[in-house]
Amino acid sequence: MDEDFSIEELAQQLVDTLSAALFFAGVKKHKIPQALEAYEKLLDDESFEQNEFYGLDEIIQAIKLLRQRHKEFFV
Length: 75
Hints:
Structural class: mainly alpha
Shape: globular
Helix content: 55-70%
Radius of gyration: 13 Å
Largest sheet: none
Number of helices: 4
């Protein structure tokens, strides 16, 4: 297996992983692109910008906020 991944390949893998996480959190499959855009906007929120570290807890919090603010994406 080639271990020299480009930045673009790694970024796509992260998008795919986040898409799967959103799906298992209850986002309708056809709404995943919209949910990804909304998720990205959440990251621009001041409460997330203040954190230097963005880890598992912050991802979970962002998905919870997405569920509260965009119920239309979820089953």
